[in-house]
Structures are given as C-alpha cells and as structure tokens.
TrEMBL record:
Protein family per UniProt: Belongs to the ketopantoate reductase family.
Name of the protein in its database record: 2-dehydropantoate 2-reductase
InterPro entries xrefs: 6-PGluconate_DH-like_C_sf, 6PGD_dom2, ApbA, Ketopantoate_reductase, KPA_reductase, KPR_N, NAD(P)-bd_dom_sf
Organism: Corallococcus sicarius
EC number: 1.1.1.169
NADP listed as a keyword: yes
Domain Ketopantoate reductase N-terminal: 8-154
C-alpha cells in the first residue's frame, strides 16, 4: 500500500517502540512521541527490535523520528496510542487539537475503556480498539524485546484497511474482530496475573512455574469469570484453552502444568508484566483498570470480589511504600483469607 502513509506512536515506551519500531524497520514512515528519557535513549542508539522467535531488526538512529513535542500528530494518518491507561485522557486532549482530518486513532492498551476515553475527547474522529497479546520488555539502549507469542487484534473497521499491509509487512499482522469487548475481557482475565507478578517480583516464567503463584492467579480469574457470567459477558478465546478452563490448568501441580501448559510457559526468561515495570519504576500502576474492573462489575452484578479487591489494595500499598517480600504461599494464604472472610 502507499508508502506515503504516516504512522505516529503516541507514548513511546515498550509497546509503542516495539510495534512502531517494527513498522519502521519494514519501511513504514513512523514518528514517535515520547518522554525526554526515551527520546534521548532512542536518538543515541536507534531502535533494536527483537522477539522470542529470533527476529533482530534495527532502525538506525539517523532514521528514527522521535520527539517530545507532539508535532508529528498533524501529519499522521494512523495514530497508535500506547500510553498507560491513566495517561489516556491527557493523550486524547493533545491529539484533539492536532490531528489532521481523516486521521484514524487506535488504542493499543490494556483495560476496557481507553478507546472510549479517547472518543469522548475526540468527537467525530475514528477511534478504534486494539489489543496487544504479547509481552514487550524494554532492555535499554533502544532495545525492545517481545518475549511471548500472540497476534495483534483490532476492531473490524474500514478505517483500518489502508494500514493492514504495513502491519503484515512488519510481521505484526492484525486480526480483526467484530466483538472487541469479548477480546478485551479475555485479555483482562489474563492481565489479572499482572498484580500477582508485580507482587512476586519475579520474571513471568519463574512466577508461572510455581504453583502457589499460579493458584493466586487462579483465585483472581475464578472470581472474574463468576462476575462475567453474572453480567452475561462471554470472554473471547485468546489461548489454546477457553478462558473458563484456565484456572483449573493453573492449579495443577508444577510437573503436570509444565507439560500441559508449554505455550503459557513459552515466555522469555527475562520478561515481566507491565505492572512490574511500573512498580519497579515507582509509577502508579494500571491495577485499577484491570483487577479494579472486576471489582466494579462485581458490585454492579452483586458478585463478591474479595480476591481482586485485596490485590488492588496490595498493589496500592506497594505503590505507596517499600516493597513487601512476598512468597507465593504467603500471598495465597492472604488471598484465601480475604476470600473466606467475605464468605
Ligand atoms: N509492556 C507490555 O508487555 C504490554 C503492555 N500492554 C499495555 O500497553 C499499554 C502501554 O504499555 P507499555 O508500553 O508497557 O507502557 P510504557 O510505560 O512502557 O510506555 C508508555 C510511555 O508513554 C509515555 N507517555 C505518557 N503520556 C505521554 C505524553 N502525554 N506524551 C509523551 N509520552 C507520554 C510514558 O511516560 P511516563 O511514564 O513518564 O508517563 C511512557 O514512557 C498499557 O496499557 C499496557 O498495559 C499490553 C500488552 C503487553
Ligand atoms: C502480555 C502481558 C499479558 C504480560 O506481559 C501483558 O499484557 C502485560 O504485561 O501487561
């Protein structure tokens, strides 16, 4: 398709630099808007995009267009919003006065409502919901590593059609979906692990290899599934097993799990959740947009959610103060107690 298309990544971090970087490495024109620290890092090193299958792509520094100023918004045909959820409204306001007529915006964020938040501040604009299934770790010096598998998904919309070839050329083909709400809820169920991973303070692979941590995730997911059932929401199938089978799988002993859940453990040994990234960097996390959504929907449909409420509280505590050294057994006992106290 026309190489005159221009992409803009708003929020040059792990996802933005990786997805935008791969688009740029395959010949697309991409401009990045990010914070000073990332701008300096990328200007000094260029971008290196690696994945667990062995991809190793580079965009030399001289060819990366990255700035803290949002000027690139005024020439972009497609804007990828890749800020964390709490920064979405602010991002939308910056887009509002700058987007050119006909520009399309896509939210490649976790959580449920980011696209709607953008629509509210961008009336009359085409704002699409996207979903990123894979993990990306920022490794420093402009290197971004995708450490797990998965296909980008986006809401089915004619506005996306002109850009699909560029994503495919970048090795990031986009699967289009009629029902993104089901996709987002399914991703959110998987993201209930983010809080457990952040508290575990371990790489994902190490955390998910230990049954006690997995049982914590299972408790949170079972609660989430009960809430969704009561609300009449059927989450999409994003993994080899459907969502309602995953808690049972997580509860299996380590040896059996390692054999049956090879795909779930096929994660780079260094990869950690985006919530761990935030805690580690001293930033507010997205817990309210993930576990918090289960709590809010639970209140609406009158299904108790003590486990997710407790995870929200523990992450809030970790955001505010010194890190507590959890073991999987200790967190499991804490969450089980929270669940029993409510019963
Ligand atoms: N990392 C991962 O593996 C995955 C992440 N996701 C989701 O993707 C989204 C993005 O996550 P991720 O890439 O990890 O986040 P990052 O924090 O790595 O990147 C977002 C970047 O955007 C910057 N930013 C925020 N507001 C602005 C602004 N107004 N102007 C310029 N820059 C801005 C942030 O800076 P600052 O921190 O200073 O605000 C940060 O550097 C999240 O919703 C996350 O849940 C989904 C799948 C996997
Ligand atoms: C890919 C996954 C599920 C785990 O890294 C994620 O979405 C995140 O870290 O936020």
């Amino acid at each position: 398709m026309a190489s005159s298309q221009e992409f803009c990544v708003f929020g040059a971090g792990s996802i933005g630099c990786y997805v935008g970087g791969r688009l740029a490495a395959s010949g697309a024109t991409v401009r990045f808007i990010g914070r000073e620290r990332v701008v300096q890092e990328v200007r000094a090193n260029g971008l290196r995009l690696m994945d667990w299958r062995g991809a190793d792509l580079r965009v030399p520094a001289a060819q990366v267009h990255i700035d803290t100023a949002p000027d690139a918004l005024s020439t972009a045909d497609l804007v990828l919003v890749t800020v964390k959820s709490s920064a979405t409204e602010d991002a939308g306001r910056t887009l509002a006065s700058r987007l050119k007529p006909g520009a399309v915006v896509i939210s490649f964020q976790n959580g449920l409502h980011n696209a709607q938040v953008l629509r509210d501040v961008l009336p009359g604009r085409t704002v699409l919901t996207g979903m990123v299934p894979f993990n990306v770790a920022a490794q420093g010096q402009g290197t971004f590593f995708a450490g797990s598998e998965g296909t980008l998904e986006a809401e089915q919309h004619a506005g996306l059609a002109p850009f699909l070839d560029a994503f495919a050329r970048a090795g990031l083909a986009v699967k289009q979906h009629a029902d993104m709400v089901a996709v987002q809820w399914a991703k959110l169920l998987l993201n209930l692990n983010n809080a457990v991973n952040a508290l575990a303070n371990l790489p994902l692979k190490q955390e998910l290899s230990q049954r006690a941590w997995r049982r914590c995730v299972s408790l949170a997911q079972r609660e989430g599934l009960a809430v969704l059932a009561a609300a009449g929401v059927k989450p999409a199938k994003l993994t080899p097993l459907p969502p309602h089978w995953i808690p049972g799988l997580l509860e299996l002993p380590d040896g059996v799990f390692a054999v049956l859940a090879q795909k779930m453990l096929a994660i780079d040994a260094r990869a950690r959740s985006s919530m761990w990234d935030d805690l580690h960097a001293g930033r507010t996390t997205e817990v309210d947009y993930l576990n918090g959504e289960i709590v809010r929907l639970g209140q609406k449909v009158r299904v108790p959610t003590p486990v997710n409420a407790r995870l929200v509280a523990l992450i809030r505590e970790a955001e505010a103060g010194p890190r507590r050294d959890w073991t999987g057994e200790a967190l499991l006992a804490d969450l089980t107690q929270a669940a029993q106290a409510r019963a």
